[in-house]
Amino acid sequence: MSQLSDYFSDSELQCRATNIVELDINFERELLLYRETLGFPLIVNSCCRSFAHNKKIGGSETSYHIYEDVGDGRQGTLAIDLAVKNDKQRTEMVAVALNLGWSVGVYKSFIHIDRRVDIGKKQVCFWGKY
Predict the structure, then answer these.
(1) Helices (DSSP H) in 10-114: which residue ranges?
(2) Under a CB-based contact definition with an 8 Å cutoff, are residues 23 and 79 in contact?
(3) Going from the N-terminus, what domains does the chain have, and what CATH number goes with each?
């Protein structure tokens, strides 16, 4: 059986400021399923973030990237930003994510996917700065 480490290194997933990798257990399981369903390598732009790092880069105070307790029930990071090579790949990545219950943000050079549904939030799809 595959493990997340078969597809992603700690250095890809860790907070750029603290080097901490702390993923919600369901997020980890669902990210593995997402990667295996797609069947091609993914390039991580951002995953785990501390409060301080998230603030420094202008992220939302309740970003699903934050691995620290924000009081909404998460037990680690619930989000990842993945680079997109072209429109065909973007379409496939978005379709698979939505089909698997992920919320999706679509940007020009990447997609944001998160597991907000695992803490009782509605699944959404939104356009980012494009």
Answers:
(1) 10-13, 25-38, 51-56, 87-99
(2) no
(3) 4-127 (3.30.1380.10)
What is the pTM (predicted TM-score) of this model? 0.95
What is the C-alpha separation between 87 and 93, in angstroms, rounded? Answer: 10
Identify the three-state secondary structure at position 108.
coil
- Which residue in 23, 103, 12 sits closest to 65, CA to CA? 23
How far is it, in rounded angstroms, from Cα 102 to Cα 119? 12
Which residue, 118, 37, 127, is CA-closest to 79?
A: 118
Q: Where are the beta strands (DSSP E) in the chain?
A: 44-46, 79-83, 103-106, 110-114, 125-127
Q: What is the pLDDT of residues 21-70, one digit of tens each?
A: 999 999 999 999 999 999 999 999 999 999 999 999 999 999 999 999 88
